Amino acid sequence: MLDCPHAEVCPGCPLLALPLPEQLQRKHQRLSLAFAPFHELASATIEPVVPASPVEAYRTRAKWVVGPDGALGLFAPGSDHQVLDLPGCRVLAPPLLRVAQLVRDALAAPGWLREHLRAIDLREIHSPRRSGVLLTLVVPLQNPPPLDDARRAAQALASPELLAVALNLVRPGAPQILGPQTIPLLGPSLFEDSLGSARVLATFGAFVQAHRGQATALQQAIADEARGPVLELYGGSGFLGLAIAARGVPVDSVEAFEPASRAAGEAASRARVPLRALTGDAAEVLRALPQERRAYDLVVANPPRRGLPPPVREALAALGPRAIAYMSCEPRTLARDLAHLARLGYAPLRVRPHDMMPQTGEVETLVLLERRPPAAPRLLGEGEAWLCFEKPPHEAVGSLQARVRGLPGLGGVTALSRLDRDVSGPCFFLREGAPAGQTARTRWRAWVRGVTHRTGALGDGARYRRIEVRGGHSELDLDLPEGTLGAARKRLAALGHPVLGDARFGHEPTNRYFYETSGLDRPCLHGVSGAIEGVVEGVPCPWPADLILPDGPEPGKVSVRP
Questions:
Q1: Looking at domain 379-540, which CATH architecture does it have?
Q2: What residue ranges do the domains of the chain occupy?
Q3: I need a labelling partner for 231 at 20 to 30 A (CA). Which of 185, 211, 325, 537 fits?
Q4: Residue 294's pLDDT band (boundaries 50, 70, 90)?
Q5: Which residues pair with 415 in a beta bridge?
Q6: How far is 467 from 509, CA to CA, in rounded Å?
Q7: 61-193 with 379-540: one CATH topology?
Q8: Contacts of 53 (CB under 8 A, 6+ apart)
């Protein structure tokens, strides 16, 4: 166990006081709990967590915020943006701490940094030629300081370990520390960095794994899976793709952050390896790839915490690779994506977690998926003439019907319920020969933006009742005649209370916030029970694990009411 001077107040290492074996057990349990609500993952076996070495002074990257008093570190838990000063952090690599101290010393006196600086991004570089630190100074996008002043401030920080400095402009209130625009101030923009068997070109703001040893192990495991052409999604600076291409396997590496994509292409050119760097959004690039008629043996995906967007999952499965290697740092969005991929015909063959960030609750997981028949749907109830299955999000009723008809003895069933593709809930089917003319009805629950009236009308006989307010948003019980869900969603938006995550009628900034912070990738709208008038009442459908608000209770426990 590490003795850290900030242990009592810092939120960065919540497992610091636990022995390492117990830390690994906690991480394994976190992954298991994330998988548990998804019946598609019931047969997935999670291997023991691969331990890390070293477990201190390992972090190659740090993003720290700046307090009004010159403190440099993380936000204090439960505070109104109070910044904890963390000069003695035990997990950051020593070069990062030393450069951070240069900034801290500069903040102690009035001047440009004290006036403008809001955060810093530190990146450690290791190479045979030169090692040191890249420093990014984060300032507000509104009224940015003159570049000459910024350059003078960067020059004043000069030290042998500080290789280069850049300025990053961020919008106030943005959920991420770094903004979209970065301007070099001092030194080159690209530096060679040795990561396992790859020589990447590091640049400001580009993603890098926190632990070099664990990153090397994951890189090796993924490269061993490549038997033919590889498509790499969220490739960053090419940490994984370059290692694969070094074995002579062609790689198409897709990355939206243009400086990182450019760095990957330049590194491939210098190393003379077959990697093609494609700059662009993963979903857009995937839509264009079929026109090139390229066949891939393996797809490698290493997305941000919010996971793979639904269009990427669908396009990835449509490509039909032999296997998918999925790296994830967030168990909840990983489980959500794996369940969807299982419905699309790719089942997890091996789940291997790694302790990428010792002393924290974070766990990095590598999952190998292979083509399998689509996962069977979950049965919620059945009667003599009907069956009710759970309809997951991102699936049309017609697709669900095809999966149901693939079950033994159900080849002739017909869908009775009409549910929007992007929502979840109970879906009724009539057995072959059942009487026609029956009507299904669904009871809906939704989280909407803002605080609504306690009750209200939505037109066409539809009504809502407010159940709860949390985080400034409302949970509603919706009583809707069958076929009026779309109109009700539109009416809620017109009233100023759109469903959270609703891409068609929702509030884009709010949707973006929940997508970035909690991975909400569809409307926070679910059918909690269903009925067939005159036949069956109240078939419940549990609240799905992917619809979790950031300030809500534990996964699977949001608004589960009869």
A1: 2-Layer Sandwich (3.30)
A2: 61-193, 209-371, 379-540
A3: 211
A4: confident
A5: 429
A6: 24
A7: no
A8: 213
Q: CATH code for 61-193?
A: 2.40.50.1070
Give the pair of three-digit tokens for residue 56. Answer: 């201190």
Q: What is the DSSP letter of 46?
A: B
Half-sphere exposure (CA, 13 Å, Cβ side) for 419?
38
| pLDDT, tens only, 177-206 | 999 899 999 999 999 999 888 999 999 999
pLDDT at 285 over 50: yes
Q: Are 450 and 473 in contact (CB under 8 A)?
A: yes
- B/e letters for 222-234, b = 16+ CB within 10 Å, e = fewer, are bbebbeebbbbbb
pTM above 0.85, yes or no: yes
Instruction: Please give the angle made by the CA atoms of 118, 122 and 127, to the nearest 5 degrees.
Output: 160
> Which residue in 69, 70, 56, 68 sits closest to 13, CA to CA?
56
Q: Does domain 209-371 have CATH number 3.40.50.150?
A: yes
CA-CA distance, 50 to 320, in Å (whole number)?
A: 30
CB 34 within 8 A of CB 186: no
Provide the 10 A C-beta neighbour count for residue 561.
12
For residue 25, pLDDT over 50 is answered with yes
Token pair belonging to 205: 């703001």
Structure confidence by residue, pLDDT tens digits, 103-123: 999 999 888 899 999 999 999
pLDDT in tens, 55-86: 999 999 999 999 988 999 999 987 778 999 99
CA distance readout (Å), 70 to 108, 164, 203, 350, 559: 6, 22, 27, 47, 42
Structure tokens at 310: 């639904």
CA 54 vs. chain centroid, Å, equals: 27
**Buried b vs exposed e over 399-427: b needs ≥16 C-beta within 10 Å?**
bbbebbeeeeebeebebbbebbebbbbbb
SS (H, E, C) 80-140: CCCEEECCCCCCECHHHHHHHHHHHHHHCCCCHHHHHCCEEEEEEECCCCCCEEEEEEEEE
